[in-house]
Design a protein that fits this description.
Strands 1-2-4-3 form a four-stranded antiparallel beta sheet. It is built from eight helices and four strands, in the order ααβααβαααβαβ. The protein has a single domain, classed as NADH Oxidase (3-Layer(aba) Sandwich). Helix 1 crosses helix 7 and helix 5 packs antiparallel against helix 6.
Length: about 210
């Protein structure tokens, strides 16, 4: 399936085929493709908690207001936006830039300073926004890739974040922008036509708002 077709055919699925697994190699491929997502300064401020085990999905379902798709989906991915990605990844990113010829050695500290100035201290609102917006790019890439691999998805923000952090050992300074259910459409389910989409004239402006 090409990219345009995957975008057009992707839907947020509420009814997953319970008990149908995703093979580990396919899940790994999905995550590797999603990891090609762009990010600010290539800092990749995302982490993923993969929830496959039935007992863990049941716990996650409780944290997600008992939505059945959490338990029925083959796997649910908890996307974690990490404000600490700056400190964790900046040197490796700069090493790569230098090795590949994107940056001369004498520019290293300049780029590091630019990144720190742009995204602020680790506990700042700017840093949190940086982490969430880039993790959202990863999320969309993942859903398109899933469709291309014959999988269905549903991004969810209906959950108790503190419950998920507690139950899945996620540090308090991390942010969970969404969880994504991944699996296969339940046999016998026919999707309704795609719901309302605005005409582009309603949201597109040229040159000024």
């Amino acid at each position: 399936m090409d990219a345009i077709q995957a975008i057009k055919e992707r839907r947020s699925i509420n009814f997953f085929e319970a008990g149908k697994d995703i093979m580990d190699d396919k899940l790994k491929e999905l995550l590797e493709i999603a990891n090609l997502s762009p990010s600010s300064f290539n800092l990749q401020p995302w982490k993923v908690v993969v929830v496959k085990e039935p007992g863990k999905k049941k716990i996650l379902k409780q944290c997600a207001f008992n939505q059945p798709k959490v338990e029925d989906a083959s796997v649910v991915l908890i996307l974690v936006a990490d404000p600490d990605a700056m400190e964790e990844n900046i040197d490796r990113m700069l090493d790569s830039w230098q090795e590949l010829g994107y940056m001369k050695p004498d520019m290293r500290e300049t780029y590091k300073g630019m990144a720190n100035n742009l995204y602020g201290p680790a506990d700042s609102l700017k840093r949190k926004i940086f982490a969430v917006k880039n993790t959202s790019l990863f999320a969309m890439n993942l859903m398109i890739a899933a469709k291309g691999l014959g999988l269905e998805t549903h991004p969810m923000d209906g959950f108790d974040e503190e419950c998920i952090k507690k139950e899945f050992n996620i540090p308090p300074n991390k942010i969970i922008p969404m969880i994504i259910a991944v699996g296969y459409l339940r046999t016998g389910i026919k999707l309704l036509p795609r719901a309302f989409r605005r005409d582009i004239d309603e949201f597109v402006r040229f040159e000024r708002y």
